[in-house]
What does this fold into?
Amino acid sequence: MSEEMPEEMPEEMPEEMPEEMPEEVPEEVPEEVPEEVPEDALDVDRLNALMREMTDPRDWRRVQVFREIRRFPKHLIEASFRRVRQAAGPDALQGDYITDPLQRALFARPTSDFITDFARPPEAVPADFALAVVLTPGYEHLFSTFLRSLRAFGGVPDATLLVFAIDAPDLGFSAEELTALNVRVIPGRGLAPFGASIKGVLYGAWRFTDARYLILCDLDTLVVGSLEGLRATVANLSRSSVAGVQALAPANPLLASAAEDRGANDTVGAAVRSQGAPDSDVELVTGRADLVDRPYLFNGGFVAGHREAMEAVGRQIAAWNPLAVLWAEGGFAWFAEEVLLTLAIHAVADPVFLSRRYNLFSHNDAPETWFHSEMTPKGLRLSYQGQPAVLLHFMSNLAGTDKSPRLMLPKMYEQIMEGYALHGGEGI
It folds into this structure.
């Protein structure tokens, strides 16, 4: 899951919601397919106005607006997006600038020199292995702890860390320090409201590196063991494979049904319905009804593969635009970008499931995610089913269901990192 969730989660609705929801906003989106607007009643001006409202910073409002947008024919939605959204930023998709597959941010078009010739420490060799993270203002503390854990325990000093820094966050390190740590900062300008969908930036990471293998990570993770074994695992994958750890498909804590039966989230369609959206959205976005019944795949906090496979997935998501962009923004409140990742992998790649030790969830009550921690003479040891843990995944803020109330604050995250470092985390 992404670190971009709201700082507090009231028991019944997101922080951005007013204390009383407007009467026209139902608590849940009906699961049935919404009726399409009759051709003789089409109001293109209304659709254009709705398209402009999709930039509203409030998650719940974008979800409400998309409910109405999805009633229009797909060709009109696409035309309205081009007319309204792309006209508002004519340099966003052309010239010297590029954007990620979900159009979350704008970047300078990388040159070959940018990709291959940036300064590295004298002792470093060109990396065949790169990690990528995205950082926005307000989450700098997560970057600091992630970077320190990577360099302290990751065991891959030659691996490049790509940091997509959106809207000038304060990284807290000098340029010299970042170079010495083999960090490459890629500045960008946000094009859409921040939220979990900002992770879509990473689906275009392949454009900015010549590394053969890529790992996409959430910043609310800690590296607690060596990544060397993971490097070898990814290197042995086929060039069409994308690997990750099986997700407990995203459950919406506002919907009681999502908390009742985790098993109902085994398919993409069931996961979408658990978020209060109709599973017909899958065909609306992708044009493929068969993807509705495919298995739900990976938690988006850790995904790995050959650069070629990552490129294929990113290009597929971009090919579904503009519906993919709109759905990431308003299909439902959280983690639509993770569902899009699953859909794209099913469409163009081969999924490979890895052990949960590569993405252990610190915030879940499901027994299959539990891990073991113990203090040894060498320090703190974390393991899963007897194997050393590699990544420990927090959520920068989490409020669970009534059955599993949890709240993981960023300060707690940092304290755990500090404690781990002080005890000389053993790793692998």
About this structure: The mean pLDDT is 77. The two ends are 24 Å apart (CA to CA).
